[in-house]
Structure formats: C-alpha cells, structure tokens
Amino acid sequence: xxxxxPPGGYEVTAGGGFGISNTRAFVVSxxxxxVAAGDHGSIGKALELSVGSTVFGAVNGDQVNxxxxxxxxxxxxxxxxxxxxxxxxxxATLVLFGPNGRKLRTVRDTQCCDPVLDFSAPADGEYVVGVxxxxxxxxxxxxxxxxxxxxxxxxxxxxPAGKPGSNDQYxxxxxxxxxxxxxxxxxxxxxxxQ
Length: 194
Fold this sequence. Notes:
Layout: E1 8-12, E2 15-16, E3 19-20, E4 24-28, E5 32-35, E6 47-48, E7 53-58, E8 65-71, E9 76-82, E10 92-97, E11 103-108, E12 116-120, E13 125-133, E14 143-149, E15 153-158, E16 171-175, E17 187-188, E18 191-192
Parallel strand pairs: 5-7, 6-8
Antiparallel strand pairs: 1-4, 2-3, 7-14, 8-13, 9-12, 9-14, 10-11, 10-13, 15-16, 17-18
C-alpha cells in the first residue's frame, strides 16, 4: 500500500512487451504536495507554501521561481531541492530572502549536486526562496522537487554499518532531531549539527 512506502528516493523500472525500461528516479514524500503553476517569476508573485510542504516545478530559461512561507523566530527550516538526484538537467541553486526583502543566503551543490539550505529564522515573518538553474537554462527537462520542512534530517550515523538483527548502539548526527543536543565543533556549511 502507498502509505507503507517510506519517504525517500527510489529507482523505478517498467516492464512490458518490449522489455524493461532504463531506471528513473522517483521520490516519495509525506509532505503536503503542491504542483507549481502560473507566473511566480518574481518575489511579488511568489507562490505560497507552508513549512511541511513539497513543490514540484520546472524553470524556464532566464527564470527564477519564487515561493513564500511563514517562519517563527529561531525555527530551523531545511529547504531541500532535488534536481540532479532525480535525473533533471537542472543545476539548481537556492536563494533565500528575509522578511525585510534582503538576501540572507545562496546555496548550491550541498547534497550530491543539489542544494540544501539550512537556516534558523532570525525573526517571525514571511520568507521567500528562489530556485533557478545556475546558468539560467530551462525547459521541460529542468524540473525539481523542493521540500520546505522543519522535520528531522539525518546527515550521518556512527558507526556507519552493523550486523542485521543486532542491538548495537548508534549515534545519529543531523538537524531538527527529536531530543537532539548541539555537538560542539561539528557543523556542515556553517550550521551546527545535533
């Protein structure tokens, strides 16, 4: 059943009378889904999202797609834009603007070749994230799957492997971890891990 498939990226093939297809990336998410439509190529026309949602979209050449969302002061939000990881031609870049309209951060090539923007909101208010191809290419093959969430994010586990069925202990490192505590001196791209 669909509700029993864990969120994440999968490789899918299709078989039929003419054989088996090449594999394609397929993403399963438990966030609210939004399909980007209409003109949201400027900050003033940003498409509204909520924290805990995922948007599917594509960029046209020379275009930045904009999305706005509300965040509370000190809320840690992670924006994960999958493009190359799902076989898109897009070299995605994210840019974040604060409630005052000033650019807070730009990221590229964080997770494999895709951007993940991790920030703690400096104030209550509306934030805008823009997504675009690094060299402003676009078209049907320049699609993306972008999540805006405050859910847990696992960066790595120590030890990285174990015996099946064992009761060994593992330490999980990541962000927004339930019951997590900051790790002194351990950060990724300037943001601390728990």
